[in-house]
Amino acid sequence: MSLTAAQVGSNAFREPAEGARGYNDVQVDAFLKEVADEMGRLEAENRDLAELCRLEAECAEAQERVERLRAELEKARSVDPSRLVEFAQQTADQHTAEANRVAADVLRRASTEAALLVSDAELRASTVVADARSVHAERIAGLVTKRRDALERIDALCREARERRESLISQLGDRLRGMDPKPANRSPR
């Protein structure tokens, strides 16, 4: 695992539990800052060295081109004027072949990079789809549980309503039975 200066610099240690022994967090933080600074310097130096290597390679390639062009120029100067058109054609063919080689190399690198980008995009897409399916499954499972709980609550409320209705009917029946169904006879006057 590579470690960057930013990771070292952002690292923090927990304080030890009360009464426990541990490191002095100020000293640890100061050391980590020194390490992060040094890593940052080394990273910058590595970037500079990589750029220098790239520039040296470009310089060497340019010098090779200059030498080839000088050789062609000397060759062109030594050509019999009657063969000048033939020489120009050969030179043009050489430059065309070189351009085709460079173009093929650029296309090959672009194709490789495109394939990597597509592969990365497909991987990310499949991860997003898998995550979405997982969340969907969790939510559906949650809905099933909520539905079951709601149906159980509805059944319990229906039972309670029936019991209360039956209790009310029973109480009303008892009260009605306790009342004299016939009115008291009043004597005629």
UniProtKB/TrEMBL annotation:
Q: Does the keyword Cell inner membrane feature in the UniProt annotation?
A: no
> Which residue ranges does the record annotate as region Disordered?
169-189
**Where does the record say this protein resides?**
Cytoplasm
Q: Does the keyword Cytoplasm apply?
A: yes
Query: What biological processes does GO assign it?
Result: cell division
**Primary localization class, coarse:** cytoplasm
Task: State the signal peptide span.
Answer: none
Gene Ontology CC annotations of this record: cytoplasm
Question: InterPro entries under this entry?
Answer: DivIVA_domain, DivIVA_fam
What protein am I looking at?
Cell wall synthesis protein Wag31
Which organism was this protein described from?
Actinoplanes italicus
